[in-house]
């Protein structure tokens, strides 16, 4: 039997997601929350969303709370999303860099992995003889597990350039027909880690480029400003932050300056 979520119960989940992840669930998301959590109530044999909230609040069941976060976070991505960002990246890669210094890129909120694998294909192609590293992170352990597999429906390959598809992906055959697998050697160069952007970052070093695209519109103003400030600290002087084309940092930071649509740079000095 379906269980309705009351406005008061929904408000509890709104506040919890804001506290845990800095994510604002608008009032229009009430039915979405109900639909995505209904299965957990059935599995756990709970009579109401209020009982489920009591289970995951106050640190009583951290594992189940992570499951809740996984279910309520939206993870939409695809290969080579926002091609102009990749064109800009390629232009930057063509510029001389100090020998022996690894180029480092952080794909934050990487979802199911299409973004960091797209970046890895570009780096493998453009920097064949130079060291590079990619950190890929997300709040959701569920999508990170999928990302590590590097296994996708063939329909997801539409955005991958043909030369990259041939060089860095394997087409599924037999039982795996209709899928593609990112080449193991390329996938092994991407370090996937669970990182909650709302919390203090773990020690991850500094980066020449950080991608955080189509995420910040979920944050409230305070969380957005805090995240951007901490990301700026992780950029090397002259480094770049990429955000979504529907997003802006206007009024959010003075540490970074806009240089192209949805691209910000940290001053070199």
What is the mean pLDDT? 91
> How would you describe the shape?
globular
Q: Largest beta sheet: what is the strand line-up?
A: 6-2-1-7-8-10-9
Cα(first) to Cα(last) distance is 62 Å
Beta-strand share of residues: 15-25%
Notes on the structure:
This protein has 269 residues and is α/β, with parallel strands linked by helices. Helices cover 40% and strands 17% of the residues. A hairpin with a 7-residue loop joins strand 4 (169-171) and strand 5 (179-182). The model has no long low-confidence stretch (mean pLDDT 91).
Considering the chains and any ligands shown, give keywords for the structure.
10 helices, 3-stranded antiparallel sheet, 269 residues, alpha/beta, 7-stranded mixed sheet, 10 strands, 40% helix
Present the secondary structure layout.
Elements: H1 7-21, H2 30-44, H3 49-56, H4 62-72, H5 83-93, E1 103-107, H6 114-126, E2 132-138, H7 141-149, E3 151-153, H8 162-168, E4 169-171, E5 179-182, H9 184-187, E6 190-194, E7 207-211, H10 221-234, E8 235-242, E9 257-260, E10 263-265
Parallel strand pairs: 1-2, 1-7, 2-6, 7-8
Antiparallel strand pairs: 3-5, 4-5, 8-10, 9-10
């Amino acid at each position: 039997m379906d269980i309705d979520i009351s406005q008061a119960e929904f408000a509890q989940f709104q506040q919890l997601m804001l506290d845990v992840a800095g994510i604002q669930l608008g009032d229009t998301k009430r039915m979405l929350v109900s639909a995505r959590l209904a299965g957990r109530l059935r599995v756990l044999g709970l009579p109401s969303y209020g009982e489920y909230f009591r289970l995951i609040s106050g640190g009583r069941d951290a594992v189940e709370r992570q499951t809740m976060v996984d279910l309520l976070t939206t993870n939409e991505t695809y290969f080579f999303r926002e091609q102009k960002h990749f064109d800009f990246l390629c232009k930057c890669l063509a510029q001389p860099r100090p020998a022996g210094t690894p180029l480092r890129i952080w794909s934050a909120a990487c979802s199911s992995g299409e973004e960091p694998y797209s970046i890895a294909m570009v780096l493998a192609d453009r920097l064949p003889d130079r060291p590079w590293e990619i950190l890929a992170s997300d709040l959701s352990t569920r999508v990170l597990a999928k990302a590590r597999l590097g296994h996708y429906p063939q329909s997801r390959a539409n955005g991958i350039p043909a030369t990259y598809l041939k060089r860095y992906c394997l087409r599924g055959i037999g039982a795996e027909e209709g899928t593609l697998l990112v080449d193991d050697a390329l996938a092994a160069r991407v370090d996937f880690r669970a990182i909650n952007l709302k919390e203090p970052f773990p020690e991850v070093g500094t980066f020449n480029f950080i991608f955080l695209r189509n995420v910040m519109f979920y944050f409230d103003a305070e969380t957005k400003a805090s995240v951007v400030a901490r990301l700026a600290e992780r950029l090397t002087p002259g480094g770049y932050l990429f955000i979504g084309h529907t997003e802006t940092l206007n009024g959010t930071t003075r540490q970074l300056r806009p240089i192209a649509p949805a691209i910000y740079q940290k001053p070199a000095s």
